[in-house]
Design brief:
about 40% helix, alpha/beta, globular, seven-stranded mixed beta sheet, binds pyridoxal-5'-phosphate, three-stranded antiparallel beta sheet, about 15% strand
Length: about 375
Amino acid sequence: MIPYSRQNIDDEDIKAVLKVLKSDFLTQGPVVKKFENKIIESLKCKHAIAVNSATSALHIACLALNVKKNDIVWTTPNSFVASANCALYCDANIDFVDIENKTWNMSIIELEKKLKIAKKNKKLPKVVIYVHLAGNPIDQKKIYNLSKLYNFKIIEDASHAFGAKYKKSYIGNCRWSDITVFSFHPVKIITTAEGGVATTNNKNYAEKMKLFASHGITKDKKNFLNKKPNPWHYEQHYLGYNYRMSEIHAALGLSQLKKFKNFVKKRNNLANLYKKNLNSLKITFQEIDKYNLSSYHLFIISFSYEDINLKVFKELKKNKFASNIHYQPIHLQPYFKKLGFKKGDFPIAEDFSKLCLSIPLSTSLNETDIIKISEIIKKIIK
Ligand SMILES: *Cc1c(COP(=O)(O)O)cnc(C)c1O
């Protein structure tokens, strides 16, 4: 079975991991630091905190922004549940902003409408978490302007968007946000097996995230309350977690990082081939602004009527190609229904989930695969 996305590991990656296994440090050594520095250099941000997953990165990002009980966080319903769960970990209230019809990202028009109403009701969000769906950058500057007007912080869930560019600059430079989070799960652009990173230009957020990722413990003398510490002294200042990335994972990440530009280029080439092959069909592709670069974590198509995605899903499966839905709306998950959300709350995202399908796209596919998959789809929808 060929999956909808998968990792690309070569001998260089394997060598890098083996080297760490023979070294003195398996955790909290020099390779994690190196990996973080390389991310800072690649994306042009000031700080990077590598952790054991994007889910952990989202959690420490919320903690650094002081999200707590009675605070409100908004995100998109068209994402993985982790984009919303991070707010719930902090005991905050979660709500959603419906998506837009062409980019399938959070609708900025809906966001503005909802902000106006929220201001009247004194229920403005403390943080808005948006997602660059499939690696397609949202219009960040517009949301940044709204954040100044309505006084909220911004977390980018850029799990899909490593190597994507917004107006010629890499996502993760945090020009238009407070914190950006990436995932290094094997289906994403580059991998550390499990892993993630949070980037920021704010020193205070960076220090807090570092602490929250490691038990809330500081070993930095200048932060100690005890002014005459023994040499073994450390202090816990927050209720933190163990979200640290290991040296083994960082070594894989550091090696993968050398290849991210090529990965993104190959994904773009294959995506363009899909577009060429499926162009004549009644299918919609994701709209990407010509000044932006998508990292094409996913190739999502949207059909013109319901349930055809199931038919195509089954036919692809028969031919050993796996496809998937991105996403079943978060608010319709049983857990979120128990919080009070219901069918009809975010109709565009709900309709989209009935029409969309992510067809295979990864750097291990070749042009022949893309043509084969396109032919299967063509036969069904003509
Ligand atoms: C994959 C993903 C996550 C979670 O990433 P992990 O590294 O598996 O924790 C969060 N948000 C989005 C949008 C994702 O696609």
